[in-house]
Amino acid sequence: MGADIFYPEEFLDVFGSLSKLEQSITLPIFDSQYYRDQSDIGDVRALDHFLAFGIEMWRDPHPLIDLRYMRSTRSDIFQPVPSIEDMLGVITDNAIDPSPFFSLEDYRFVVSDVKVYGSLLIHFLNVAAESDISPLALFDPVYYRAQGLDVPSNGRDALLHFIRVGDQNRVSPSAAFDSLAYEARYGDVMRAALPPLEHYLRIGRFEGRKIFHHAKFGRTELHARATQDWTFKPDPAIWESDTQRLRAKLVASQAAQREQALIVPISVDSASSATAIAFPVHGAPLIDVIIPFYNETETTRRCLGALHKGMGDLAIHPILMDDGSTEDTAILSAVPGVTMIRNEQNLHYLASCNRAFSASSAPFVLLLNNDAFVLPGALQALLDELRSAPEIAAAGPKIVYPSGHLQEAGCALLPDATTVMVGLGSNPDLPRYNYARDVGHISAACLLLKRDMIGNDLYDERFRPAYCEDADLSLRLRFSGKRIRYVPQATCVHELSVSTGKHSKVGRVRQVVINQHKLFDKWSEQLEQDGEVSTFCFYLPQFHPTAENDLWWGKGFTEWTNVAKALPSFEGHYQPHLPSDHGYYDLRCGDVMSEQYALAQRYGLSGFIMYYYNFGARRVLDRPLRNLLSNKGIHFRFALCWANENWTRHWDGGEKAILLEQQYDNETLASVCSDAIEAARDPRAITVNGRPMFLVYRPLLIPDPRLFTDMVRSAFIDEGLGNPYLLYVESMEAINRGVSPQDIGFDACVEFPPQGIGAPYADELSMLKAGWQGHVYDYEESVLLACKESTAPYKRMPAVFPSWDNTARQPLRGTSFIGQTPAAFSEYVRKKADFAYEMLVGEEKMMFVNAWNEWAEGAHLEPDVAYGHSWLQALQDGLAAAKYQRS
Asked: Is the pTM of this model over 0.90?
């Protein structure tokens, strides 16, 4: 007699009457209780409901069968909805993993010595009821059970217990996966509402996220496949060696530049004798010229001769302040038009200047050392600069040695009150020393002052007998809101300390040190506030889905899509760049931006320059900005940079394969102004001396950039925000064009490395990709190019980049840099911060970084799996070295 035949209805009746254990044996791929827990089916039998409705509603019949997961791995199945036949076919054919917790590959390895017929899943559900095997390399039932939970004693039920209980409670499933470490490393895991291992299996492994061994019990034979087989491990000795090597290269490069420069000695043409000098007498002179001296009669006579030759038509009145000379000075007192004041005893420089200043009355006062020789046109240029703006209180010339080498192009005062003579020993014809600019200090060897801004006293008597008194004067002016200008159109030849050179060098050094301490004690608080270099990082707001990217690149596309799938092109090529601290974040979540800013602040960054995209009536990637402006609780200091270029399929802002074309009609420009004003009203917006900062990425693409900047300024002023501080990014077509910001209506421009500084990599490469046609550059050699002295003859803010590699966007045509290390980056930062300290002043003392999170271009300070926080630490170290350890 044959076996009984059950028809469908009869089977359902019998199945419903069985116990849970009997049901699992009869039909192991259906778990009635699990199905009821996820479906409100009332009194209907679970299997009835699943077969009639649940399967088409994508309801899962078992914890190890995930219909949507299977569909996500094979888009050609379950079309348009699953059927029982399709599901059974996929499971019995072992075509794809039935759930993230069941790996066919891992299970085949486990049962490799057993012949399995039919479904591997059904085999596991039956066999593992009596053994401790696992279908997932990251789940070890013995290890899981040893952590003290009430876990069933077989592999099948232990895995089901972990899915329902253990993973939800962050219990590690094996020595190969530390649940708490994974969740702590990637802050978005908790926001994703998935427990750690499930998140990794569904999302993290496909994005290349790193996993961490759980070392509590020490079982390490099971392990996940590494997503990154190398991590940077800082070694102090290697770091120092790398730093010194690059520093030596920088010093050698600068020395070579100076040796190659053609510098011509300067001969001062002064009168041949005192009788040839005669200054007109003016009832109300325009400029009183105070020249203190002690002996050195001939040098002083030459100083008068140069002054006479260079005064032009200006009404000047020389005041010679004789500080108790022992030489015969009759030849000087006999010069017509000169007033001679004499100290009966040597009171030294400070007291002598104060006495002469009290005797002067002209609206302008020139302080002039007796060994300083003004060249023709210098006085007029200084006077014109002083008159150019009411807040300018002092102006000084380019000061050179008789050899023709630069002595100073203005001076910088550092936070510790030390003075840096800008350009000392350099070629005075270099562009960087040949544009007028604000400075922190100019030495009084030759300094023109507005008398009404000085007050009754010239120098503070606390600095007697001499040294640092002129620095104190500069600080007094600057911290009362006045400006000091360096004027390269004026030149003065300075023989430097002719008179003091005969005095004790040890005594002079001692007095300098004493007065420097006095200067620091007096101004330390203001110097500390004024002395920092503000460091801003370019910030990409791309990391969230948009309708445009869904249309062009596929549903859910973000930059992470490209980043995660990048592969190395050659041996030693660092790819992919995988994020660590914040994981594959979504910028629709404001908490991410607050966390990013907190991390940036921790390492010395001052704020972010957020790219902003406006195509007229269409804003793109603006969700993070909208969230930021509407949520004052997001801690995030920012300025906008209008990224005004076409969007193309090649990610190059070019004219081919255009996806979105940048427009410059009046409506678009007006909307840019409106958005910039809205952002500038935010209390978190970056300002420079109270002026809202706004940047433009490619100004030369604007048909009339001057008209646009005038429009922006007028709009800001009309809205009561004052005159904005406008910067343009010196990138693309602006590189090496030498476009002065002032000529097109901007206050300054910003470097944008590595554009314009790439030094080709010279060594052979061992290729890994067939058909690769990319470009490779040498990081250290590129840094040398970036730090050359012959920079632009206009105000340009320095910038640095930690690395750059757009392989993620251009797999076969990418551009990469080799040799970037945190140590090299730190030295690069130090050198550029040195430039900021020397060439910029006050809140204009800033530096930029490309970039915080350009992950698809390999340019990111944001921590990654391989380097962790090393780039941020290198930035902090470089800034500190520039501030405290100048060399």
From this structure: no
